[in-house]
Amino acid sequence: xxxxxxxxxxxxxxxxxxxxxxxxxxxxxxxxxxxxxxxxxxxxxxxxxxxxxxxxxxxxxxxxxxxxxxxxxxxxxxxxxxxxxxxxxxxxxxxxxxxxxxxxxxxxxxxxxxxxxxxxxxxxxxxxxxxxxxxxxxxxxxxxxxxxxxxxxxxxxxxxxxxxxxxxxxxxxxxxxxxxxxxxxxxxxxxxxxxxxxxxxxxxxxxxxxxxxxxxxxxxxxxxxxxxxxxxxxxxxxxxxxxxxxxxxxxxxxxxxxxxxxxxxxxxxxxxxxxxxxxxxxxxxxxxxxxxxxxxxxxxxxxxxxxxxxxxxxxxxxxxxxxxxxxxxxxxxxxxxxxxxxxxxxxxxxxxxxxxxxxxxxxxxxxxxxxxxxxxxxxxxxxxxxxxxxxxxxxxxxxxxxxxxxxxxxxxxxxxxxxxxxxxxxxxxxxxxxxxxxxxxxxxxxxxxxxxxxxxxxxxxxxxxxxxxxxxxxxxxxxxxxxxxxxxxxxxxxxxxxxxxxxxxxxxxxxxxxxxx
Length: 517
Known about the structure:
It contains 13 helices and 16 strands. By secondary structure, it is an alpha+beta fold. Among the domains are: 4-85, Macroglobulin (MG2) domain (Immunoglobulin-like, Sandwich); 91-173, Immunoglobulins (Immunoglobulin-like), CATH 2.60.40; 443-517. α5 (301-346) crosses α10, α6 (351-361) runs antiparallel to α7 and α8 packs antiparallel against α9 (397-412). The chain is elongated, with a radius of gyration of 40 Å. Strands 2, 4, 5, 7, 8 and 9 form a six-stranded mixed sheet that branches. It has a four-stranded mixed sheet with strand order 11-16-15-14, with no helix packed on it.
């Protein structure tokens, strides 16, 4: 005969459970195991057939297994029913600490569903309990600006009750400002449509009249895009003149002097690049303001700062890529320019003639730089000064080596053909070494690029599967802390990997250079 449980099962309770177990009268000894959430929590052996009390005091799903050894050595196994205890109370929290809502019109109130994105109600066992939330919404004057207490209460399936006081702030309404902003946007949009209609209408009439008119020979009027480009450049130049009065901005603009060769606005003034950055930042901020206004929302401080910074540093990224392409093109064409100049020297031409020959034979950045150098020579500068200015504009080791060689030639004399032949061989060997290094490290660079992209691909994959998965990170202070930590770790990871790659490149270069001697 099996033993007896005073309570064989309990479906759901929020109270501890005490169970009396009476073993078989013929029991020699027995062992009972308390299984909590499918894991053995306790195992106890008793000698004899005395009754015991088993206490279940924590939240969980329990089951009791008993193995009894009788006096006749027979073994009996017995299993109780299921005991479910839920002593955890639900949690009521807010996403931002204080619920902020704009004041409502007269006789208007807020219901529970209006706060679904502000209040979080969760229970460990029952999950989301927002639909069971009860609050004293009627006690808050939604038409009066101020800070109020909103009392909310919720209970779970086990009748665990939680009551929480939430701060509720009624803010000044921005509906009127939004209405004015929308009205202005609508007027601007209407004006743009009217101007476009007039423009297309004028084009239509022009196309009808054009077959019956005779155009003057060689006349070419600039198009609309050309006129806008010219107008934009004039605006940037005028603003730059004002900003140049600031000593701080003038010193700050010097860090962008390397972009002067690729700037299409007054190539000799890096202040124009700073002005362009500010205009792009303001343009992005205006677009953000328009989009928020259309959504009937007011911009927060973060929504003002982040778009401004994004627009301000966007030209840096674009011009850095453009400068890198310009720099690589210049570096690749420099060897050809040296070969052309060396051949010109061999045919008996002067340095001036050799430089002019480069401008006729080559295109791109190297042609522009040699045209500048030819102009400087025509203005009376010496060869040494011209190449020094060239070396300062373009920070390349090859150009610095070329400038130093010409400077020594001017001071001590020598065979310029031999010097340029030596420079030509050196540049050719360096270019060959660089291509070999690029080939050897191609697989490593591909792996590094993939490792850089893996976090973003993983985030994109998660967002496709569950678009709201990452929302808790952006709706709480601890979430923003974790985001900041992840960004710092990711940037440190990029820096560390790039340092390793730089060391590897250096080792390969040294191995190659040692092998060439």
